[in-house]
Amino acid sequence: MDRIPILQMGDLLLVTIQVDMHDQLALTLQDDLTDKIQRTSARGVLIDISALDIVDSFIGRMISTISALARIMDATTVVVGMQPAVAITLVELGLDLRGVRTALNVERGMKLLQLPAGDP
Amino acid sequence: MDRIPILQMGDLLLVTIQVDMHDQLALTLQDDLTDKIQRTSARGVLIDISALDIVDSFIGRMISTISALARIMDATTVVVGMQPAVAITLVELGLDLRGVRTALNVERGMKLLQLPAGDP
């Protein structure tokens, strides 16, 4: 497992995080994603984390970084499928994912991205 | 990693295979998928295998089983994102995925599932 697949659906990109992230995997994902946003002119990035039971500050920072990268490439990032325990951990870690939009599931995330962009 | 997430998009379900499958994971996926097809009345199942560099007969059989399960629940399975090397291996293994539809990527798979069902 050396890279996380990025699926294109219209002008959205979907990333499903299923495995433990490590430095190299996170860097590769950032590279692949910025590359794909440019090639596909994607307007939105959905990051599904429903498979994650736990998160740490590394994952939290990675999501923030991806969101910031996407934003300066004019794409909006929505994190979907967060489990309740993960939400609790993120807040306890002091990672409030400022500027990152969230939705309960992929469908709601897709709906969110079809709306005109406003402030999160 | 004890289960593979199944994402719902309208009346389609999307499964992204990223990790090495083992017996228990495959069984859990079959259970989860049949359960989700029933609960969501899904008409199509997309299995993305773009992250897989290699496949063995175990994965090949799992895909065939999932497809057969979905079919008797009135859902069509499309395998998407197969890498060239994987296609070669499958044919060399004698696994021609009979009855399983394939598409080059998720978008084409979604388009295929929106067409009226015909024979693969």
From TrEMBL, chains A, B:
<dbReference type="InterPro" id="IPR036513">
    <property type="entry name" value="STAS_dom_sf"/>
</dbReference>
<dbReference type="Pfam" id="PF01740">
    <property type="entry name" value="STAS"/>
</dbReference>
<dbReference type="InterPro" id="IPR002645">
    <property type="entry name" value="STAS_dom"/>
</dbReference>
<dbReference type="InterPro" id="IPR051932">
    <property type="entry name" value="Bact_StressResp_Reg"/>
</dbReference>
<protein>
    <submittedName>
        <fullName>STAS domain-containing protein</fullName>
    </submittedName>
</protein>
<feature type="domain" description="STAS">
    <location>
        <begin position="2"/>
        <end position="113"/>
    </location>
</feature>
